[in-house]
Specification:
Keywords: Iron, Metal-binding
Organism: Bradyrhizobium vignae
Distance between the termini: 31 Å
Largest sheet: 3 strands, antiparallel
Helix content: 10-25%
Pfam families: GBBH-like_N
Strand content: 25-35%
InterPro entries: GBBH-like_N, GBBH-like_N_sf
Structural class: alpha+beta
Strand order of the largest sheet: 1-2-3
Shape: globular
Number of helices: 3
Number of strands: 6
Protein name: DUF971 domain-containing protein
Length: 101
């Protein structure tokens, strides 16, 4: 009897879109996904953003926000934005959930 393991998709590759308005992700199952920069910024779970939400001072939108830098930490991506925010670490499974995967 042969056992086949089912593996959940993971992030295989990524890049910012040409206009910097989205993160383009390719999964290990060769799916092409996209997450807007605004969705990423609104979904940041860093301590600063978590506290701002708790205090009721977190913005409801980030119109025109752009991705300015992406750092690969192995387990996730550190994404910097045009508003100067650079504290967000997005674990790769979290990125896939934001992309609807």
């Amino acid at each position: 009897m042969t056992m086949t393991a089912l593996l959940a998709p993971s992030v295989a590759d990524y890049e910012a879109s040409a206009d910097l308005a989205a993160l383009l992700v390719r999964t290990t199952q060769n799916d092409a996904l996209s997450v807007t920069a605004e969705t990423l910024r609104l979904s940041c779970k860093c301590a600063h953003c978590t506290r701002a939400r708790f205090d009721g001072r977190f913005p409801e939108a980030f119109p025109g926000i752009a991705i300015t830098e992406i750092g690969d930490l192995g387990y996730g991506l550190n994404i910097s934005f045009s508003d100067g925010h650079n504290r967000g670490i997005y674990p790769k499974p979290y990125l896939l959930s934001l992309a609807g995967q």
